[in-house]
Design brief:
Number of strands: 9
Largest sheet: 7 strands, antiparallel
Oligomer: single chain
Strand order of the largest sheet: 7-5-4-3-2-6-9
Number of helices: 8
Order of helices and strands: HEEEHHEHHEEHEHEHE
Structural class: alpha+beta
Shape: globular
Radius of gyration: 19 Å
């Protein structure tokens, strides 16, 4: 009995390792037509040990696409704002865990099963080049417009523009909004980031449940002039 259990555990671990390796090594899409347009836009993928966000410099396109944010209380024209930072995730874990000290059992269980999703939007200052938590991604104009459109479509729409959750955010410069889709452990926040980057014409790995997998795949499947530290 013990020997059989060991074999099952070994097989499970082996399958998990294979999924991780394939998730990084297999590109998505499998074949990418090289873009010839100049990479005129620079965005950032920000990461911590479990989560990634997309940081976009404030410009007129951002103001137009996400104009509803000003009415919700996030003014991108405030002095010192250089980026708008977007993230997607499970409502319970995302909204109730601003720090590890706030970790609770129920949000963790929901994140491991199925949960409603939210968009997190934060106003950020200037982000220096070369910081370890930021990966630079350069995209062309068409890819940039597709990226903005895909992020906008991640917000849940009622007949009115998206409205912020009543609970607010972590501080005075961020808010949560209702989002489209459901969060689960196999298709979580980092999978959303990868999907947004693919909309912009960037190749990712086939599956990216963890930030380090996404970062590694980005460097592996894109030229150094497109993805860099």
């Amino acid at each position: 009995m013990l020997s059989r259990l060991r074999r099952i555990v070994a097989i499970a671990i082996g399958l998990m390792v294979c999924c991780v390796i394939a998730g990084i090594l297999v590109p998505r899409p499998l074949w990418q037509t090289p873009a010839v347009e100049p990479k005129t836009h620079r965005i950032l993928v920000l990461s911590n040990p479990i989560h990634t966000d997309i940081a976009i410099p404030v410009d007129d396109d951002v103001r137009k696409t996400f104009g509803f944010m000003k009415g919700a209380g996030l003014d991108v024209d405030l002095n010192g704002v250089g980026y708008v930072i977007f993230g997607w995730g499970g409502r319970a874990f995302y909204t109730e865990t601003p720090t590890w000290a706030d970790l609770k059992t129920v949000p963790v269980l929901k994140s491991l099963t199925l949960d409603h999703s939210v968009m997190h939007v934060e106003l950020g200052g200037e982000i220096p080049d070369g910081v370890p938590y930021a990966t630079t991604v350069r995209i062309d104009e068409d890819g940039y417009q597709r990226l903005l459109g895909a992020i906008r479509q991640s917000f849940a729409n009622s007949p009115a523009p998206p409205t912020a959750l009543e609970r607010g955010g972590y501080g005075p410069y961020d808010l949560f909004f209702e989002a489209n889709g459901y969060f689960n452990v196999l298709s979580g926040c980092n999978s959303w980031t990868a999907a947004m980057l693919r909309q912009a014409g960037i190749s990712t790995g086939w599956w990216a449940p963890l930030p380090w997998m996404l970062r590694l795949a980005l460097h592996l499947h894109n030229d150094a002039d497109i993805v860099s530290r």
